[in-house]
Write a structure and sequence with these properties.
Elements lengths: L1 E4 L2 E4 L8 H8 L18 E4 L2 E4 L12 E3 L9 H8 L9 H8 L8 H7 L11 H11 L3
Parallel strand pairs: 1-5
Antiparallel strand pairs: 1-2, 3-4, 3-5
Helix pairs in contact: 2-5
The chain binds FE2/S2 (inorganic) cluster (2 copies).
């Protein structure tokens, strides 16, 4: 099945009802996208499909035919959010981190703390207490 993955056209063979999360991790070997709950509750598996945030554990592979999918790998290895999550201890076990960063990458640079909190309301973290995550996002918004 053809779709666009991180700006590259790809043709991936997998069962149409396989979870997009599993296709990304197994067939596409992009293990940055994590599984937390597997039930659409935690946001760890969040990716962008046609620019819309989705939890990939609830998306059948068939639904992305012809679509554009962006994962944490699609942000590159040198994104300000990644640096600030490391510097501010916004990541501990790291399971929630790719989903947090994918969501944060969609925020406007002038997003307020309240807007950041609302945007991340569907992303659960069991480790950090959230303050370090919000701080990392706010620092990434500042001019480098
Ligand atoms: S693993 Fe998909 S929402 Fe938790
Ligand atoms: S860093 Fe462990 S769940 Fe967020």
């Amino acid at each position: 099945m053809r779709f666009t993955l991180n700006d590259n056209s790809v043709d991936v063979a997998a069962h149409p009802m396989k979870r997009l999360l599993d296709v990304l991790r197994e067939e596409c070997e992009l293990t940055g996208t994590k599984e937390g709950c597997g039930e659409g509750e935690c946001g760890a598996c969040t990716v962008l499909v046609n620019g819309v945030l989705v939890v990939s554990c609830l998306v059948p592979f068939a639904q992305v035919e012809g679509a554009s999918v962006k994962t944490i790998e699609g942000l590159g290895n040198d994104h300000a959010l990644q640096h600030h999550f490391m510097n501010e201890a916004g990541a501990q076990c790291g399971i929630c981190t790719p989903g947090m960063i994918v969501v944060a990458s969609t925020l406007p640079v002038d997003a307020t703390l309240d807007e950041i909190r609302v945007a991340l309301a569907g992303n659960l973290c069991r480790c950090t207490g959230y303050e370090a995550i919000y701080r990392a996002i706010q620092k990434a918004q500042q001019p480098q």
